[in-house]
Protein backbone atom coordinates (compact mmCIF):
# COMPACT_ATOMS: atom_id res chain seq x y z
CA UNK A 1 0.00 0.00 0.00
CA UNK A 2 1.28 3.45 -0.88
CA UNK A 3 0.15 5.92 1.75
CA UNK A 4 0.27 9.72 1.62
CA UNK A 5 0.10 12.38 4.32
CA UNK A 6 -0.62 16.08 4.36
CA UNK A 7 2.22 18.56 4.81
CA UNK A 8 1.34 19.46 8.39
CA UNK A 9 1.39 15.77 9.36
CA UNK A 10 4.77 15.20 7.69
CA UNK A 11 6.25 18.28 9.32
CA UNK A 12 5.03 17.25 12.77
CA UNK A 13 6.63 13.83 12.29
CA UNK A 14 9.86 15.46 11.11
CA UNK A 15 10.00 17.64 14.21
CA UNK A 16 9.55 14.62 16.47
CA UNK A 17 12.37 12.83 14.68
CA UNK A 18 14.68 15.85 14.56
CA UNK A 19 14.40 16.16 18.35
CA UNK A 20 15.92 12.66 18.64
CA UNK A 21 18.76 13.14 16.13
CA UNK A 22 22.00 15.14 15.99
CA UNK A 23 21.70 18.51 14.27
CA UNK A 24 21.32 18.28 10.51
CA UNK A 25 21.11 14.48 10.48
CA UNK A 26 17.65 14.33 8.92
CA UNK A 27 18.65 16.57 6.02
CA UNK A 28 21.74 14.45 5.46
CA UNK A 29 19.56 11.32 5.26
CA UNK A 30 17.40 12.98 2.63
CA UNK A 31 20.40 14.23 0.69
CA UNK A 32 22.06 10.82 0.75
CA UNK A 33 18.93 9.16 -0.63
CA UNK A 34 18.55 11.85 -3.28
CA UNK A 35 22.18 11.59 -4.39
CA UNK A 36 21.99 7.79 -4.58
CA UNK A 37 18.81 7.97 -6.68
CA UNK A 38 20.35 10.58 -8.98
CA UNK A 39 23.49 8.50 -9.39
CA UNK A 40 21.41 5.50 -10.35
CA UNK A 41 19.59 7.51 -12.99
CA UNK A 42 22.84 8.90 -14.40
CA UNK A 43 24.46 5.49 -14.57
CA UNK A 44 27.91 7.09 -14.65
CA UNK A 45 28.54 9.85 -12.11
CA UNK A 46 32.18 10.67 -12.89
CA UNK A 47 32.27 13.35 -15.56
CA UNK A 48 28.49 13.84 -15.59
CA UNK A 49 27.17 17.39 -15.73
CA UNK A 50 24.66 18.15 -12.99
CA UNK A 51 22.77 21.38 -12.34
CA UNK A 52 21.10 22.06 -9.01
CA UNK A 53 18.22 24.57 -9.04
CA UNK A 54 18.24 26.04 -5.55
CA UNK A 55 15.41 27.96 -3.94
CA UNK A 56 15.27 29.23 -0.39
CA UNK A 57 14.74 26.94 2.59
CA UNK A 58 15.34 23.31 3.36
CA UNK A 59 14.34 21.98 -0.07
CA UNK A 60 17.23 23.91 -1.56
CA UNK A 61 19.43 22.60 1.26
CA UNK A 62 18.56 18.99 0.41
CA UNK A 63 19.49 19.67 -3.21
CA UNK A 64 22.79 21.39 -2.30
CA UNK A 65 23.91 18.58 0.00
CA UNK A 66 23.02 16.02 -2.68
CA UNK A 67 24.94 18.09 -5.22
CA UNK A 68 27.95 18.06 -2.88
CA UNK A 69 27.82 14.25 -2.70
CA UNK A 70 27.72 13.98 -6.50
CA UNK A 71 30.60 16.45 -6.83
CA UNK A 72 32.74 14.34 -4.49
CA UNK A 73 32.12 11.40 -6.82
CA UNK A 74 33.51 13.31 -9.79
CA UNK A 75 30.48 14.97 -11.31
CA UNK A 76 30.73 18.55 -12.51
CA UNK A 77 28.00 20.21 -10.44
CA UNK A 78 26.73 23.78 -10.86
CA UNK A 79 24.18 25.51 -8.64
CA UNK A 80 21.67 28.06 -9.91
CA UNK A 81 20.73 30.16 -6.88
CA UNK A 82 17.26 31.62 -7.39
CA UNK A 83 17.39 33.45 -4.07
CA UNK A 84 21.13 33.92 -3.34
CA UNK A 85 20.61 35.78 -0.08
CA UNK A 86 18.32 33.01 1.26
CA UNK A 87 20.09 29.87 0.06
CA UNK A 88 20.62 27.30 2.80
CA UNK A 89 23.94 28.52 4.27
CA UNK A 90 25.33 25.22 5.56
CA UNK A 91 24.26 23.39 2.43
CA UNK A 92 25.85 25.99 0.18
CA UNK A 93 29.10 25.91 2.17
CA UNK A 94 29.25 22.11 1.92
CA UNK A 95 28.51 22.31 -1.79
CA UNK A 96 31.38 24.73 -2.44
CA UNK A 97 33.82 22.72 -0.28
CA UNK A 98 33.02 19.62 -2.35
CA UNK A 99 34.00 21.41 -5.56
CA UNK A 100 30.58 22.57 -6.71
CA UNK A 101 30.36 25.99 -8.27
CA UNK A 102 27.71 28.68 -8.50
CA UNK A 103 26.66 29.26 -12.10
CA UNK A 104 27.04 32.74 -13.50
CA UNK A 105 24.76 32.03 -16.45
CA UNK A 106 22.04 29.49 -15.62
CA UNK A 107 21.08 28.97 -19.25
CA UNK A 108 24.58 27.94 -20.35
CA UNK A 109 24.91 25.24 -17.70
CA UNK A 110 21.35 24.00 -18.26
CA UNK A 111 21.93 23.66 -21.99
CA UNK A 112 24.82 21.26 -21.32
CA UNK A 113 23.38 19.38 -18.33
CA UNK A 114 22.87 15.63 -18.09
CA UNK A 115 20.75 15.87 -14.95
CA UNK A 116 18.92 18.69 -13.17
CA UNK A 117 17.89 18.57 -9.52
CA UNK A 118 14.75 20.67 -8.98
CA UNK A 119 15.13 22.15 -5.50
CA UNK A 120 13.27 25.40 -6.21
CA UNK A 121 10.31 24.97 -3.85
CA UNK A 122 9.40 22.29 -1.33
CA UNK A 123 6.24 20.95 0.25
CA UNK A 124 5.34 24.38 1.61
CA UNK A 125 5.15 26.05 -1.79
CA UNK A 126 1.81 27.43 -2.98
CA UNK A 127 0.45 29.07 -6.09
CA UNK A 128 2.89 27.85 -8.70
CA UNK A 129 6.39 29.04 -9.49
CA UNK A 130 7.37 32.63 -8.80
CA UNK A 131 7.81 34.73 -11.96
CA UNK A 132 11.60 34.87 -11.58
CA UNK A 133 11.80 31.07 -11.44
CA UNK A 134 9.68 30.44 -14.53
CA UNK A 135 12.36 31.12 -17.21
CA UNK A 136 14.86 28.88 -15.42
CA UNK A 137 12.29 26.10 -15.02
CA UNK A 138 11.39 26.35 -18.71
CA UNK A 139 15.05 26.19 -19.68
CA UNK A 140 15.52 23.07 -17.54
CA UNK A 141 12.53 21.40 -19.14
CA UNK A 142 13.65 22.46 -22.60
CA UNK A 143 17.11 20.96 -22.17
CA UNK A 144 18.08 17.37 -22.88
CA UNK A 145 18.71 16.78 -19.18
CA UNK A 146 16.87 14.34 -16.93
CA UNK A 147 14.87 16.50 -14.48
CA UNK A 148 14.59 15.07 -10.96
CA UNK A 149 12.28 16.79 -8.50
CA UNK A 150 13.43 17.07 -4.88
CA UNK A 151 10.54 15.88 -2.66
CA UNK A 152 7.97 17.11 -5.20
CA UNK A 153 7.97 19.06 -8.48
CA UNK A 154 8.21 22.78 -7.85
CA UNK A 155 4.91 24.56 -8.36
CA UNK A 156 2.44 21.79 -7.47
CA UNK A 157 0.25 21.77 -4.36
CA UNK A 158 1.43 19.00 -2.06
CA UNK A 159 -1.83 18.51 -0.17
CA UNK A 160 -4.45 18.81 -2.89
CA UNK A 161 -2.82 17.76 -6.15
CA UNK A 162 -3.81 21.08 -7.70
CA UNK A 163 -1.57 23.08 -10.03
CA UNK A 164 -2.40 26.75 -9.48
CA UNK A 165 0.27 28.27 -11.70
CA UNK A 166 3.28 27.20 -13.69
CA UNK A 167 5.05 24.08 -12.42
CA UNK A 168 8.14 22.16 -13.49
CA UNK A 169 7.51 18.81 -15.18
CA UNK A 170 9.88 16.22 -13.73
CA UNK A 171 11.04 12.98 -15.28
CA UNK A 172 11.31 11.53 -11.79
CA UNK A 173 10.59 12.61 -8.23
CA UNK A 174 12.53 11.55 -5.13
CA UNK A 175 10.33 12.15 -2.12
CA UNK A 176 11.35 11.87 1.53
CA UNK A 177 9.75 10.03 4.42
CA UNK A 178 6.22 9.71 3.04
CA UNK A 179 4.24 10.25 -0.11
CA UNK A 180 2.27 13.49 -0.32
CA UNK A 181 -1.25 13.49 -1.85
CA UNK A 182 -0.14 15.70 -4.74
CA UNK A 183 2.29 13.00 -5.87
CA UNK A 184 -0.60 10.57 -6.38
CA UNK A 185 -3.47 12.76 -7.58
CA UNK A 186 -3.88 14.56 -10.88
CA UNK A 187 -3.34 17.14 -12.19
CA UNK A 188 -0.16 17.34 -10.06
CA UNK A 189 0.62 13.65 -10.54
CA UNK A 190 1.14 14.34 -14.25
CA UNK A 191 4.18 16.46 -13.30
CA UNK A 192 5.95 13.90 -11.10
CA UNK A 193 7.31 11.28 -13.49
CA UNK A 194 8.37 8.09 -11.72
CA UNK A 195 8.18 8.56 -7.95
CA UNK A 196 10.72 7.03 -5.58
CA UNK A 197 10.30 7.12 -1.79
CA UNK A 198 13.43 7.52 0.36
CA UNK A 199 13.10 6.20 3.91
CA UNK A 200 14.44 8.77 6.38
CA UNK A 201 12.95 7.19 9.52
CA UNK A 202 9.60 9.01 9.67
CA UNK A 203 7.31 5.98 9.75
CA UNK A 204 7.19 5.51 13.57
CA UNK A 205 6.20 9.17 13.94
CA UNK A 206 3.37 9.20 11.40
CA UNK A 207 -0.25 8.45 12.35
CA UNK A 208 -1.71 5.07 11.47
CA UNK A 209 -4.41 6.60 9.24
CA UNK A 210 -3.08 8.51 6.20
CA UNK A 211 -4.90 11.09 4.10
CA UNK A 212 -4.69 9.06 0.87
CA UNK A 213 -3.71 5.54 -0.05
CA UNK A 214 -3.13 3.57 -3.24
CA UNK A 215 -3.71 -0.17 -3.34
CA UNK A 216 -1.06 -2.53 -4.72
CA UNK A 217 -1.38 -6.12 -5.98
CA UNK A 218 -1.08 -7.67 -2.50
CA UNK A 219 -3.79 -5.40 -1.08
CA UNK A 220 -6.20 -6.23 -3.90
CA UNK A 221 -5.50 -9.96 -3.56
CA UNK A 222 -6.54 -9.80 0.10
CA UNK A 223 -9.81 -8.06 -0.77
CA UNK A 224 -10.90 -10.09 -3.79
CA UNK A 225 -13.63 -12.64 -2.99
CA UNK A 226 -12.58 -16.20 -3.82
CA UNK A 227 -15.14 -19.04 -4.00
CA UNK A 228 -14.90 -21.65 -1.25
CA UNK A 229 -15.88 -25.30 -1.37
CA UNK A 230 -19.40 -24.56 -0.11
CA UNK A 231 -19.97 -21.62 -2.49
CA UNK A 232 -23.00 -21.43 -4.74
CA UNK A 233 -24.22 -18.65 -7.00
CA UNK A 234 -26.08 -16.95 -4.15
CA UNK A 235 -23.16 -17.07 -1.75
CA UNK A 236 -20.90 -15.67 -4.47
CA UNK A 237 -23.34 -12.81 -4.99
CA UNK A 238 -26.18 -12.05 -7.36
CA UNK A 239 -26.08 -8.58 -8.86
CA UNK A 240 -29.06 -6.89 -10.50
CA UNK A 241 -28.45 -4.51 -13.40
CA UNK A 242 -30.94 -1.88 -14.57
CA UNK A 243 -29.36 -0.44 -17.70
CA UNK A 244 -29.71 0.09 -21.40
CA UNK A 245 -32.43 1.55 -23.59
CA UNK A 246 -33.62 1.32 -27.17
CA UNK A 247 -30.96 3.89 -28.05
CA UNK A 248 -28.17 2.39 -25.93
CA UNK A 249 -28.63 -1.40 -25.70
CA UNK A 250 -24.86 -1.85 -25.71
CA UNK A 251 -24.56 -0.22 -22.29
CA UNK A 252 -26.57 -3.07 -20.82
CA UNK A 253 -24.41 -5.68 -22.56
CA UNK A 254 -21.20 -4.05 -21.30
CA UNK A 255 -22.43 -3.67 -17.72
CA UNK A 256 -23.46 -7.34 -17.69
CA UNK A 257 -20.06 -8.27 -19.16
CA UNK A 258 -18.28 -6.39 -16.39
CA UNK A 259 -20.36 -8.15 -13.73
CA UNK A 260 -19.93 -11.65 -15.16
CA UNK A 261 -16.18 -11.26 -15.73
CA UNK A 262 -15.94 -9.65 -12.29
CA UNK A 263 -16.88 -12.86 -10.53
CA UNK A 264 -20.62 -12.52 -9.89
CA UNK A 265 -22.39 -15.74 -9.00
CA UNK A 266 -25.28 -14.65 -11.21
CA UNK A 267 -26.50 -11.53 -12.97
CA UNK A 268 -30.14 -10.46 -13.17
CA UNK A 269 -30.81 -7.99 -15.95
CA UNK A 270 -33.84 -5.68 -16.00
CA UNK A 271 -34.49 -3.51 -19.05
CA UNK A 272 -35.35 -3.32 -22.72
CA UNK A 273 -32.07 -4.84 -23.99
CA UNK A 274 -32.80 -8.37 -22.82
CA UNK A 275 -32.47 -9.90 -26.31
CA UNK A 276 -29.08 -8.26 -26.82
CA UNK A 277 -27.90 -9.39 -23.41
CA UNK A 278 -29.03 -13.00 -23.84
CA UNK A 279 -27.50 -13.17 -27.31
CA UNK A 280 -24.11 -12.29 -25.85
CA UNK A 281 -24.40 -13.85 -22.38
CA UNK A 282 -26.98 -16.64 -22.24
CA UNK A 283 -26.26 -17.26 -18.54
CA UNK A 284 -27.89 -13.91 -17.65
CA UNK A 285 -31.26 -14.02 -15.87
CA UNK A 286 -33.43 -11.47 -17.67
CA UNK A 287 -36.64 -9.75 -16.60
CA UNK A 288 -38.94 -7.19 -18.13
CA UNK A 289 -39.17 -5.51 -14.75
CA UNK A 290 -39.83 -3.74 -12.57
CA UNK A 291 -36.70 -4.37 -10.49
CA UNK A 292 -38.71 -5.42 -7.42
CA UNK A 293 -40.09 -8.40 -9.39
CA UNK A 294 -36.78 -9.48 -10.92
CA UNK A 295 -35.82 -11.81 -8.08
CA UNK A 296 -33.36 -11.86 -5.24
CA UNK A 297 -30.14 -9.84 -5.52
CA UNK A 298 -27.39 -8.83 -3.12
CA UNK A 299 -26.70 -5.53 -4.91
CA UNK A 300 -28.06 -3.36 -7.71
CA UNK A 301 -26.38 -1.40 -10.50
CA UNK A 302 -28.52 1.29 -12.11
CA UNK A 303 -27.92 3.91 -14.78
CA UNK A 304 -25.66 2.90 -17.68
CA UNK A 305 -27.39 3.79 -20.95
CA UNK A 306 -30.72 4.20 -19.16
CA UNK A 307 -31.62 7.42 -20.95
CA UNK A 308 -34.79 8.99 -19.56
CA UNK A 309 -36.30 5.70 -18.45
CA UNK A 310 -37.20 5.32 -14.75
CA UNK A 311 -35.42 2.84 -12.55
CA UNK A 312 -33.12 4.66 -10.15
CA UNK A 313 -35.88 5.61 -7.69
CA UNK A 314 -37.12 2.05 -7.20
CA UNK A 315 -33.63 0.63 -6.93
CA UNK A 316 -32.61 3.23 -4.35
CA UNK A 317 -35.58 2.15 -2.24
CA UNK A 318 -34.17 -1.39 -1.99
CA UNK A 319 -32.43 -2.39 1.22
CA UNK A 320 -29.28 -3.71 -0.52
CA UNK A 321 -26.12 -1.95 -1.74
CA UNK A 322 -26.73 0.16 -4.84
CA UNK A 323 -24.31 1.53 -7.43
CA UNK A 324 -25.57 4.56 -9.38
CA UNK A 325 -23.85 5.52 -12.61
CA UNK A 326 -24.34 7.58 -15.77
CA UNK A 327 -28.02 8.42 -16.46
CA UNK A 328 -28.96 7.31 -12.96
CA UNK A 329 -27.00 10.26 -11.60
CA UNK A 330 -29.09 12.86 -13.42
CA UNK A 331 -31.36 14.67 -11.00
CA UNK A 332 -30.20 12.46 -8.15
CA UNK A 333 -31.86 13.56 -4.89
CA UNK A 334 -29.23 13.99 -2.19
CA UNK A 335 -31.82 13.55 0.58
CA UNK A 336 -32.97 10.22 -0.85
CA UNK A 337 -29.40 8.96 -0.99
CA UNK A 338 -28.59 10.25 2.48
CA UNK A 339 -31.70 8.54 3.83
CA UNK A 340 -30.66 5.07 2.67
CA UNK A 341 -29.59 2.54 5.28
CA UNK A 342 -27.73 0.25 2.85
CA UNK A 343 -24.47 1.35 1.19
CA UNK A 344 -24.55 3.56 -1.90
CA UNK A 345 -21.74 3.91 -4.43
CA UNK A 346 -21.88 6.80 -6.92
CA UNK A 347 -19.56 6.56 -9.94
CA UNK A 348 -19.55 9.87 -11.85
CA UNK A 349 -17.01 11.10 -14.35
CA UNK A 350 -15.89 14.73 -14.06
CA UNK A 351 -18.80 16.11 -16.10
CA UNK A 352 -21.38 14.24 -14.04
CA UNK A 353 -19.64 15.24 -10.82
CA UNK A 354 -19.74 18.87 -11.94
CA UNK A 355 -23.50 18.65 -12.50
CA UNK A 356 -24.02 17.11 -9.05
CA UNK A 357 -21.90 19.82 -7.39
CA UNK A 358 -23.21 22.71 -9.48
CA UNK A 359 -19.75 23.72 -10.72
CA UNK A 360 -17.88 23.50 -14.01
CA UNK A 361 -16.14 20.38 -15.25
CA UNK A 362 -12.86 22.31 -15.28
CA UNK A 363 -13.24 23.03 -11.55
CA UNK A 364 -13.72 19.34 -10.78
CA UNK A 365 -10.71 18.30 -12.87
CA UNK A 366 -8.51 20.99 -11.32
CA UNK A 367 -9.39 19.96 -7.75
CA UNK A 368 -10.20 16.26 -7.92
CA UNK A 369 -9.43 15.48 -4.28
CA UNK A 370 -11.61 18.30 -3.00
CA UNK A 371 -14.41 17.39 -5.42
CA UNK A 372 -14.63 13.71 -4.48
CA UNK A 373 -14.67 14.56 -0.77
CA UNK A 374 -17.33 17.22 -1.28
CA UNK A 375 -19.53 14.82 -3.27
CA UNK A 376 -19.22 12.08 -0.65
CA UNK A 377 -20.20 14.48 2.13
CA UNK A 378 -23.06 16.09 0.22
CA UNK A 379 -24.70 12.77 -0.71
CA UNK A 380 -23.69 10.74 2.32
CA UNK A 381 -22.42 8.07 -0.04
CA UNK A 382 -19.18 6.51 -1.21
CA UNK A 383 -18.07 8.24 -4.42
CA UNK A 384 -15.85 6.86 -7.15
CA UNK A 385 -14.75 9.83 -9.26
CA UNK A 386 -13.56 8.49 -12.62
CA UNK A 387 -10.81 10.19 -14.59
CA UNK A 388 -7.09 10.50 -15.09
CA UNK A 389 -6.64 9.34 -11.51
CA UNK A 390 -9.76 7.63 -10.23
CA UNK A 391 -10.50 8.45 -6.60
CA UNK A 392 -12.76 6.71 -4.08
CA UNK A 393 -13.96 8.58 -0.98
CA UNK A 394 -16.27 7.79 1.92
CA UNK A 395 -18.38 10.55 3.51
CA UNK A 396 -17.19 12.35 6.61
CA UNK A 397 -13.52 11.59 6.01
CA UNK A 398 -13.99 8.26 7.79
CA UNK A 399 -11.19 6.65 5.82
CA UNK A 400 -8.33 7.70 3.55
CA UNK A 401 -9.24 8.59 -0.01
CA UNK A 402 -8.25 5.73 -2.27
CA UNK A 403 -6.22 6.67 -5.36
CA UNK A 404 -6.18 4.15 -8.19
CA UNK A 405 -2.65 3.59 -9.57
CA UNK A 406 -3.55 1.45 -12.60
CA UNK A 407 -5.43 4.02 -14.67
CA UNK A 408 -4.49 4.51 -18.30
CA UNK A 409 -5.66 6.89 -21.05
CA UNK A 410 -6.69 3.80 -23.03
CA UNK A 411 -9.78 3.66 -20.80
CA UNK A 412 -11.06 6.86 -22.41
CA UNK A 413 -13.30 4.88 -24.75
CA UNK A 414 -17.05 4.51 -25.13
CA UNK A 415 -18.58 1.96 -22.77
CA UNK A 416 -15.59 1.67 -20.47
CA UNK A 417 -17.56 3.13 -17.57
CA UNK A 418 -20.38 0.64 -18.13
CA UNK A 419 -17.92 -2.24 -17.70
CA UNK A 420 -16.59 -0.65 -14.51
CA UNK A 421 -20.12 -0.32 -13.10
CA UNK A 422 -20.90 -3.98 -13.66
CA UNK A 423 -17.55 -5.03 -12.20
CA UNK A 424 -17.98 -2.90 -9.07
CA UNK A 425 -21.58 -4.11 -8.71
CA UNK A 426 -20.43 -7.74 -8.72
CA UNK A 427 -17.99 -6.96 -5.89
CA UNK A 428 -20.73 -5.19 -3.91
CA UNK A 429 -22.91 -8.27 -4.32
CA UNK A 430 -20.05 -10.44 -3.09
CA UNK A 431 -20.03 -8.52 0.18
CA UNK A 432 -17.27 -5.95 -0.23
CA UNK A 433 -17.86 -2.52 1.25
CA UNK A 434 -18.66 0.26 -1.21
CA UNK A 435 -15.16 1.68 -0.72
CA UNK A 436 -13.44 -1.65 -1.30
CA UNK A 437 -15.71 -2.59 -4.21
CA UNK A 438 -15.06 0.72 -5.96
CA UNK A 439 -11.32 0.78 -5.44
CA UNK A 440 -10.76 -2.91 -6.30
CA UNK A 441 -12.94 -2.57 -9.41
CA UNK A 442 -10.99 0.49 -10.56
CA UNK A 443 -7.72 -1.37 -10.00
CA UNK A 444 -8.79 -4.44 -12.00
CA UNK A 445 -10.35 -2.25 -14.71
CA UNK A 446 -7.03 -0.48 -15.22
CA UNK A 447 -5.05 -3.72 -15.28
CA UNK A 448 -7.44 -5.17 -17.84
CA UNK A 449 -7.02 -2.13 -20.08
CA UNK A 450 -3.25 -2.49 -19.92
CA UNK A 451 -3.58 -6.08 -21.11
CA UNK A 452 -5.54 -4.94 -24.15
CA UNK A 453 -3.75 -1.64 -24.85
CA UNK A 454 -1.76 -3.16 -27.70
CA UNK A 455 -4.97 -3.86 -29.57
CA UNK A 456 -5.93 -1.22 -32.11
CA UNK A 457 -8.38 0.19 -31.39
CA UNK A 458 -8.99 -0.65 -27.73
CA UNK A 459 -12.67 -1.29 -26.99
CA UNK A 460 -14.71 -1.58 -23.81
CA UNK A 461 -15.66 -5.12 -24.87
CA UNK A 462 -11.98 -6.05 -24.97
CA UNK A 463 -11.46 -4.57 -21.50
CA UNK A 464 -14.33 -6.66 -20.12
CA UNK A 465 -13.08 -9.83 -21.78
CA UNK A 466 -9.60 -9.32 -20.35
CA UNK A 467 -10.75 -8.95 -16.73
CA UNK A 468 -9.79 -12.58 -15.92
CA UNK A 469 -6.22 -11.68 -16.94
CA UNK A 470 -6.30 -8.86 -14.40
CA UNK A 471 -7.38 -11.30 -11.68
CA UNK A 472 -4.47 -13.57 -12.64
CA UNK A 473 -2.06 -10.63 -12.45
CA UNK A 474 -3.13 -9.91 -8.90
CA UNK A 475 -2.69 -13.51 -7.78
CA UNK A 476 0.56 -14.14 -9.67
UniProtKB/TrEMBL annotation:
Q: What is its EC number?
A: 4.2.1.136, 5.1.99.6
Q: How is the cofactor bound?
A: Binds 1 potassium ion per subunit.
Q: Name one Pfam family in it.
A: YjeF_N
Q: Where does the YjeF C-terminal domain start and stop, copy by copy?
A: 216-474
Q: Where is the YjeF N-terminal domain?
A: 10-208
Cofactor(s) this protein cannot do without: K(+); Mg(2+)
Q: Cite the entry's keywords alphabetically.
A: ATP-binding, Isomerase, Lyase, Metal-binding, Multifunctional enzyme, NAD, NADP, Nucleotide-binding, Potassium
- The UniProt annotation places (6S)-NADPHX binding at 58-62, 122-128, 151, 251, 305, 349, 418
The residues listed in the UniProt record as binding AMP, with positions renumbered to this chain, are 386-390, 417
Write out the catalysed reaction.
(6R)-NADHX = (6S)-NADHX; (6R)-NADPHX = (6S)-NADPHX; (6S)-NADPHX + ADP = AMP + phosphate + NADPH + H(+); (6S)-NADHX + ADP = AMP + phosphate + NADH + H(+)
Cross-referenced InterPro entries: CARKD, Nnr, Ribokinase-like, YjeF_N_dom, YjeF_N_dom_sf
Superkingdom of origin organism: Bacteria
Chain positions recorded as K(+) binding sites? 59, 118, 154
User: What binding partners and quaternary form does the record give?
Assistant: Homotetramer.
NCBIfam families xref list: yjeF_cterm (TIGR00196), yjeF_nterm (TIGR00197)
Which PANTHER family does the record cross-reference, listed alphabetically? ATP-DEPENDENT (S)-NAD(P)H-HYDRATE DEHYDRATASE (PTHR12592:SF0), ATP-DEPENDENT (S)-NAD(P)H-HYDRATE DEHYDRATASE FAMILY MEMBER (PTHR12592)
Against HAMAP family, the record matches this protein to: NADHX_dehydratase, NADHX_epimerase
* Family the entry assigns: Belongs to the NnrD/CARKD family. In the C-terminal section; belongs to the NnrD/CARKD family.
What is the annotated role of this protein in its UniProt record? Catalyzes the dehydration of the S-form of NAD(P)HX at the expense of ADP, which is converted to AMP. Together with NAD(P)HX epimerase, which catalyzes the epimerization of the S- and R-forms, the enzyme allows the repair of both epimers of NAD(P)HX, a damaged form of NAD(P)H that is a result of enzymatic or heat-dependent hydration.
> What name goes with this protein?
Bifunctional NAD(P)H-hydrate repair enzyme
What lineage does UniProt assign to this protein's organism?
Bacteria, Bacillati, Actinomycetota, Actinomycetes, Kitasatosporales
- Supply the gene name: nnrD
